[in-house]
Amino acid sequence: MAKPDPHNEDTFREIQVKSTLHAAKLPEKTILKDVENHGFGPETTFAIKLALEEAMTNAVRHGNANDPDKSIRVRFAVSNECAVIIVRDDGPGFDPDTVPDPTAPDRLSQPSGRGIMLMGAYMDEVKYRDNGREVYMLKKNGD
Questions:
Q1: How far apart are CA 95 and CA 99, in angstroms?
Q2: Among 73, 83, 65, which Cα is nearest to 130's?
Q3: Among the four 3, 83, 85, 120, which has the fewest Cβ within 10 Å?
Q4: What are the residue boundaries of the structural domains of the chain, listed by start?
């Protein structure tokens, strides 16, 4: 297989886990080790860690509705320039434009919606694909 290339999804590495919060943490160690091995600094690594945690939690809770019989597929590639992570769940999908703004005054006490906001704030690119079943995240090496 070709070396993983963030610009060619056919070369991405893949990790598939059961849809539980415990299993959702498993890809993190592998991906963050790859990120650090490619010279990403602590701030950028932290941004990737936070965005990945949010994407995985959303996949378990919202996408797969906490169903442990479903799975989460994580595809990723890291180079010295950037990291791309794609998280896909087995759920019905969603429209991110319909998620209420968690910073609106009437939503400040509500816990939902912050993960999407955080992923957008910490990553350089976030795209929802296949009707929201998949989130594509790109982070440039900026430390």
A1: 7
A2: 73
A3: 3
A4: 9-140
Which backbone phi and psi does 43 adopt, to 5 degrees? -65, -45
- Taking residue 3's Cβ as centre, other Cβ atoms within 10 Å add up to 8
CATH superfamily of 9-140: Histidine kinase-like ATPase, C-terminal domain (3.30.565.10)
Q: Which residue has the tokens 């799975």?
A: 71
Residue 101 token pair: 């703004």
- Give me the chain's average pLDDT, please: 91
Q: What pLDDT is stored for residue 111 in this prediction?
A: 66
Rounded alpha-carbon distances, angstroms, from residue 67 to 5, 35, 57: 32, 30, 12
Alpha-carbon span 123 to 101, nearest angstrom: 18
- 69 Cβ contact partners less than 8 Å away, ≥ 6 residues apart: 19
Under the banding of pLDDT at 50, 70 and 90, the label for residue 97 is confident
Task: Say if residue 112's pLDDT is above 80.
Answer: no
